[in-house]
Amino acid sequence: MKQISQLALSVQLPDDETFDSFKSMANQGVVAQLKAFIETSNNEEHHRGIVAPHGFYLFGLSGVGKSHLLHASSSYAATLNLLCLSFSELTHLSVEVLDGLEHIDVICLDDIHIIAGDKQWQQAVFDLYNRLVEQNKKMIITGDQSVQQLAITLPDLVSRLSWGFVEQVKVLSDDEKSTALQYRAQQRGLLLSNEVVKFLLNRLSRDMGSLIESLDILDKASIIEQRKITIPFIKETFPDKIF
Asked: 237 and 218 in contact (C-beta within 8 Å)?
């Protein structure tokens, strides 16, 4: 796991969630735009008289890979000062945790829809966005709905989210999910046959997040029992999930 050390927070990123492991042809345009957004120096653009966007909003259904793309952005920006945080963890803390983050090159915030009903957190994110703009830094934010459908009640924050790039992450096809699963398994030294992958897709939850969690469980179980991942082994490992 890659340890992020900018804050005294327990923040870790999965090593295998990179742009290379995001196997979706339909989303390659989003990947290319994210790379360009990270690579472009706002200071250089400013000196050339170009107003470069400071924000990038990614939205899509649960399980399409938004968090994966945030983690991939973090890995891609390895030479930059970058921090990736999730609102699922942040909302248990004081909003003061965002103080001073405007000096970080790129801030990644996952699942902004979680704060849709929290005015204090919405104001804190809006204030952070403004400070980042003042410092010529950048922010990448994900949510499960388009900006207009987010139910964010602070109009100024809605406006800020719409300022920069806005892209929807499309659902992966079954073929893309199969390719992604086999790639992630290969990275762990596992071999998943086409038959096994098809069985997983047909019998378990079909969103990529759940499929990767299942792969994690199978990986650990296969190590403990020194067995290959086969259909009978999957049935034994998930007796309550397989029907």
From this structure: yes
SS3 assignment, position 120: helix
> Measured between alpha carbons, how far is 236 from 215 in angstroms, rounded to an integer?
14
pLDDT of residue 193 exceeding 70, the answer is yes
Distance CA(123)–CA(129), nearest Å, equals 10
Contacts 24+ apart (CB under 8 A), 120-124: 120/95, 121/87, 121/90, 121/91, 121/95, 122/152, 122/153, 122/154, 122/157, 123/95, 123/154, 123/157, 124/95, 124/98
Bridge-based pairing state of the strands 165-168 and 55-59? parallel
Task: Check residue 194 and give its pLDDT.
Answer: 94
pLDDT in tens, 74-109: 888 777 888 889 999 888 889 999 999 999 999 999
Cα–Cα dist 186/188, whole Å: 5
The answer to whether 39 touches 51, Cβ cutoff 8 Å, is no
